[in-house]
Design goal:
- By secondary structure, the protein is of the alpha/beta class.
- Helix content is about 45%, strand content about 15%.
- It is built from 14 helices and 15 strands.
- The longest helix is centred in the N-terminal third of the chain and has 20 residues.
Length: about 375
């Protein structure tokens, strides 16, 4: 619930859809799934209390979620302590499978590091020389910029950084920041603002002509939580990414998922829906390989060799070394679509998953800190 409640709503809807589908086809190893969904209200103490209840009273086999990386940091420590598998389907902090990695966590979505690196590869092919950042003032905003900047400088040592701005999370007034960007005159801006923050920033910047003067790349603004409320007001030609676009790929599984989701909930699936749906199917694939829900046996089975499973966004591969998914990241340019009544990214560029995952040397270094 609250300002980012849409993400939880889409996740809950996708869980129900996936559970109903799997159960109607015989369940997993002949057993039916049961899912319980509760509202964390974006509070760490509530999230941990729910996890304790789920594990100690409800005797769940898996924990899944949450939306916030801040909450996920507490939950991953709880999962490790209680030897309970946590499937991360929404929180994108790269530390979850990096510095904070342990065997009981599996991340089934491309994380912030992967999206930052993919953005650097995409933008490095453009002629821009002067860069800025505006992102939320907490761990995700800062790490997104640092990872984008370091990879971009590696690929394009000729670029110049002309400023970085970090308004508080859920800021209401961006006028001073917009003024600073206009005064700095960058060629391009990296902006990990997301959800309501991205909407408020874009709306407030429109009257200034900012998007006519500066090219923006938003790693999260391809989400329907931004595109739908912006409607016709979303500027064309902004580079956006998302962990799942309902319009692609042109596969049978994706077409069916979008059709059933739209018929059931009267809206299109956001990336949180796509990623959470994929997380439920990861459980199915992992349990069927292991032949059991026992955590230790399941971990060994998944680590035996990379586990591939099909999802609406395409095939995902879970790798053993950090329990992180390997998948491509898509970037497109915003363009209003009359059919949907909001912008749909087009002209997709696909950055290959192998390019943006941590190397063995990087894994060793980050875990040694």
């Amino acid at each position: 619930s609250g300002p980012v409640g849409g993400y939880g709503k889409h996740a809950a809807q996708a869980i129900k859809l996936a559970v109903d589908e799997i159960n109607s086809n015989g369940g997993i190893l002949g057993r039916k799934l049961e899912a319980m969904v509760e509202d964390t209200k974006l509070k760490k103490d509530i999230a941990l209390d729910l996890a304790k209840r789920y594990v100690n009273e409800d005797k769940v086999d898996f924990l899944m979620g949450p939306t916030s990386s801040g909450l996920a940091m507490g939950l991953t420590a709880f999962a490790k302590e209680n030897k309970k598998i946590l499937i991360v389907t929404q929180a994108a902090a790269d530390a979850l499978t990096g510095a904070k990695f342990h065997p009981y966590i599996f991340s089934t979505l491309s994380n912030a590091m992967m999206h930052s690196r993919s953005g650097a590869y995409m933008m490095s092919a453009k002629p821009f020389k002067k860069y800025m950042c505006i992102g939320p003032d907490y761990s995700y905003g800062h790490s997104s910029w640092e990872m984008f900047k370091s990879k971009l400088l590696e690929l394009r040592p000729d670029i110049e950084i002309v400023g970085e701005l970090f308004p508080k999370f859920f800021a209401k007034d961006y006028s001073s920041y917009i003024k600073q960007i206009l005064e700095a005159k960058p060629d391009a801006v990296w902006s990990p603002l997301w959800g309501e923050d991205a909407v408020n920033f874009i709306r407030q910047a429109l009257p200034t002509g900012l998007f006519d003067k500066v090219t923006f790349a938003f790693p999260c603004a391809g989400a329907l939580e931004v595109l739908v409320p912006m409607g016709k007001d979303m500027p064309d030609g902004i580079y956006v990414s998302s962990r799942y676009f309902f319009t692609t790929p042109d596969s049978g599984m994706n077409k069916n998922f979008v059709k059933v989701y739209h018929e059931t909930y009267k809206e299109y699936p956001d990336y949180m829906a796509g990623e959470t749906y994929a997380g439920v199917y990861f459980i199915k694939a992992a349990v069927e390989r292991a032949g059991t829900t026992d955590p230790e046996a399941l971990i060994k089975a998944v680590e035996r060799e990379p586990l591939a499973w099909e999802t609406p966004e395409g095939w995902k591969i879970m790798r053993a070394e950090d329990h992180s998914v390997v998948e491509d990241c898509l970037w497109g340019e915003t363009a209003f679509d009359e059919k949907y009544g909001f912008s749909i990214p087009s002209g997709f560029v696909s950055i290959q998953g192998e390019q943006i995952c941590r190397t063995p040397e990087e894994l060793k270094a980050v875990r040694g800190k």
